[in-house]
Protein: CynX/NimT family MFS transporter
Organism: Pseudomonas serboccidentalis
Amino acid sequence: MNLETEKNVSTLKRTAELEELLIDAEADDEQVQQSHPLVRRPWLLLLGLILVALNLRPALSSMAPLLSEVSKSLGLSAAQAGLLTTLPVLCLGLFAPLAPILARRFGAERVVLGILLTLAGGIILRSNFGEIGLFAGSVLGGASIGIIGVLLPGIVKRDFARHAGTMTGVYTMALCLGAAMAAGSTVPLSEHFDNSWALGLGFWVIPALVAAVFWLPQVGQKHGAHNVAYRVRGLLRDPLAWQVTLYMGLQSSLAYIVFGWLPSILIGRGLTPTQAGLVLSGSVIIQLASSLAAPWLATRGKDQRLAIVVVMALTLAGLFGCLYAPLDGLWGWAILLGLGQGGTFSLALTLIVLRSRDSHVAANLSSMSQGFGYTLASMGPFAVGVVHDWTGGWNAVGWIFGIIGTGAIIAGLGAGRALYVQVQSEKI
């Protein structure tokens, strides 16, 4: 090959490279144009996320303070009452894998809107159709929350990538606020409505419908990152993905034990249902501070391992204090519990975002960690019910706290490392 030929080949290569760059630039411009409406109104998406997150716990935390009253009213056995606390959490895990499938077919924004309406339907069903409606509505509510919860980390990764930790803390704080409101006000609401537990539980359909109204504008937005469907391969073979999943599941197990059984534990120790509900509500309100602060602080270090150990230690201290310590110091232990659990959950969601290279991986890791994780988490409330029935008291439940908490710390030490899950993301 002579010198002139080599020059011609070199020129052709540079021309081809330039054409590829122009094509990539045009694609980037098109994506920016598609997502431009969202950029102009990020406050609208933020408001929508907050209102959606407010509805991801009331259907769960509103039942615990009324559990004994509901059981007496409908003649539920201890096993049926235990199933009522376990079933929604199990549905969180069983239905979570549907989220990315539905999002690829209809778009994440449309799915969130539709599932908010099914959540409202579940709340109505649970509070108006006796024992069958109670269990069917719990299934529908748990399934709805499981699907929406999977989609939110992917939306945050896509639209707030530079502030993922802070934004995760914001919507986690809203989630905790919804749980606290429901735990603390459901009993007073039922008393206000002539001691009707059905109206106390049914009240929470209102926030779900309000959230649907404010989320509606997102359906009309063009979110460029979801215009192309992606398949993520290799997630189930990745050890880091399983560590994130185990941490999510084990810390969630402690959270749903608190939502499902803490009021009953405190009532067994001598508190009234209203007092027990207020303690649960106060503890969850404290989560507002740590759910916002923990991800922000954890992302300032080289990794999240120390933060995970600290928040889990606070959680265990609070649980053991509520279970064994004198009631004179109960509020102090409830505060420790709230600080710990607000941090454990927000860090679990933050890990999904931080361990993912892009929004497609985040959505699939979210599905995996919440699907398998919540299925695992449902075993915690079930185990508490079984142990309570076997022993006739609550003291042995401390062993469950210790075993789950230790497992969460071990899984968190792996999940908290500054690594990415090793997967392949490809267009479908």
